[in-house]
Every structure is written in C-alpha cells, then in structure tokens.
Amino acid sequence: MNKMIGLYRNFVTNYKNIIIFILLIIFITTIILSCQKEIVVKPVSGYESQLFIECILFPGEIPRVYLSKSMPYFAGEVIPQQLFARGASIRILKDSEEDILLADSTFDRFRCRWIPFYKGSVSAEFGRTYELVVNYDGQTYRATTTIDQKSVSIDSVIYTPEFFDIFGGHDGVILYFSDTPGQDNYYRFQMNRMIDNTRLHAHELDGLVSDCTEGKKFLSVDLGRTIFSDENVDGQAMELYVEVSFEYQAGDSAWVYVQSLDKNSAEFFSDLDLQLQSIKNPFVENVFLKSKIEGAIGIFGSVVRSDSVLFIYPQDNP
C-alpha cells in the first residue's frame, strides 16, 4: 500500500513539473512574440545632399579629384556615375600658377563600370604647397597640402600564411623597412598587379565575376585599409602585416610600395578604416569621420611612394 502511495505521489509531482514546464514555455513564447513588431521606416523628407571631395597628390603625377554627392540611406544601389557632381569648377593653385581640372573618367574592368573624376594637366611636384579650390552649386570649398614626406626604402617583402588582426586570421605579406627618424610618419601599403577575371576579390566583392575583361589582364591597385604610424618606434625597423584584397596563385607577380602620407590624409583614412571595423564588429567603438575640408566631407592630401619591390607569390591561396 505504501508503495502504491509513493508511486502516486511521484506521478503527481512529475505531472505538476510537466505542467509548470509547459506553462513556462508558453509564457516565454508569448513574451518573445509580443516583442516582435514590424516597423515601416519612412525615408526622411527634405534630405540635403553633402559634397564629398577626395584628392591625393602624388609627385610626378597628374592630379585627380573625385567629386560626388551623398545620397539618403534608403536611396538604393547607385553607381559612381549617378553620384558624380557634374558642372563643378575645380582649380589647383601653386604659387601664381593655376591648373584647371576638367571632367574625365576611366573604366574599372574589375567592376565593369565607369569611374568619373576631374583631371588636371600639370604634374604635382615634391616640396611644393598646393591649394584646392572647388566651386559647386554656389558654394566654394578650399584646402591645402604640402608634399614634403620622406620616402622609405623597402628592405624586403615576404609571404605569411597566417597572421591575426581584429577580423581574425589571414594570410598576407609582411613589409620590412626602416622608419625615417626625427618626424611623425604615416604609412600605407600599396600593391600593383595585373590580374584577370579568375582572381576574385577576397572579401566584400567575393563571387563577383568580371564579364567585361575580354579575357585580358588589367591593372589592380590594392591599397591597404590600415594606416601605420611610427609613434613610439621613431627611427626603428618597421614591420607591416598586410592582408591583400585579391586572390592569387603561385607564381603571380606584383609590385609593392610603401606610401608615406601627410598627417591629414593619415587621420582621414584611419577614421575611415575604424568606421569599417565598427560596422563589421559590434565590439568596436564607433568613430565619427572627421572631414579635412571645411563645409564638405573629404580630404585633400599628398602621398610620396617608395621605390617598388617585385614580389612573387610562393603558393596558391590557402
């Protein structure tokens, strides 16, 4: 009899626990469903477009100014031709000399689209100070830069199968060179390669197949997103670990440079990189992009490249 009573009590206890568990699941499900709500976001009316200006001067090269208009967040997918700020008056001044820039464009064979810009006719010179003057839509924008950065000499470039950064593990290349002592220096990686449509973009454009190359190779200029400085390592040996943007195969050759940037350009592109990191990683603090051109968004700066070093990939993509 006692055994029967014990079995009955166990059954009642288990039954109560099951009922409580079921009620708890129903309660949690109700809470979750009650937290879900479809929200229709309406585009803000009266959006005021801002002008974006980007111009980096290189000694011995003709200036290019990329001028575009910002678009609302919900504008949808657009191409550079739609953003291009047409009808602007752009001048680059050097002492009493004036270079008037005219609208031009180049064809991006990787993305199969035209990239518009304003192009000058006078090559920039090392050691000179330049002023950019942009007149657009009744407004005038001005900025200056001096090309006085010291170029560095690359000692060597080697392949690394793996290194780690905030985005995880990557393969890439390591650049070795000595920092110029006695001044603040800012560096960025550059790799020039001839590629075809079998070399896909390693990340953001992975899977995009270029169907306008006609089977021919075309120049790819790969700029590192990370800006390196010589803070606390003035005059010492530098090691730059860089992840490249495009896939490769053993035997692929490339020309590698170290760019020496002016302070304004370094700060602008560094903030741009930190913004990208905050978008992809929720644990990275957001950074506000600080423009270097009053009244607009953008940068007018200068870069001095090192001599190039030939680099040949020793293996295929891992």
Brief rundown of the structure:
18% of the residues lie in helices and 39% in strands. The chain is an alpha+beta fold and 318 residues long.
Question: Layout of helices and strands, plus pairs?
Answer:
Blueprint: H1 2-35, E1 51-57, E2 64-69, H2 80-83, E3 89-94, E4 97-108, E5 113-119, E6 129-136, E7 139-146, E8 154-165, E9 168-178, E10 186-195, E11 218-223, E12 228-229, E13 237-242, E14 253-261, H3 263-280, E15 297-305, E16 309-312
Parallel strand pairs: 1-15
Antiparallel strand pairs: 1-2, 2-5, 3-4, 3-6, 4-5, 6-7, 8-9, 9-13, 10-11, 10-12, 10-14, 14-15, 14-16
Sheet-strand content, in percent, reads 35-45%
- What is the first-to-last residue Cα distance? 72 Å
Q: Which stretches are poorly predicted, pLDDT < 50 over at least 5 residues? A: 2-8
- Number of domains as seen in the coordinates: 2
Task: Name the structural class.
Answer: alpha+beta
Number of strands: 16
Radius of gyration: 28 Å
Give average pLDDT, whole number: 84
Helix share of residues? 10-25%
Largest sheet: 13 strands, mixed
Which term fits the overall shape?
A: globular
Return the string of H and E elements.
HEEHEEEEEEEEEEEEHEE
Summed up, the helix count is 3
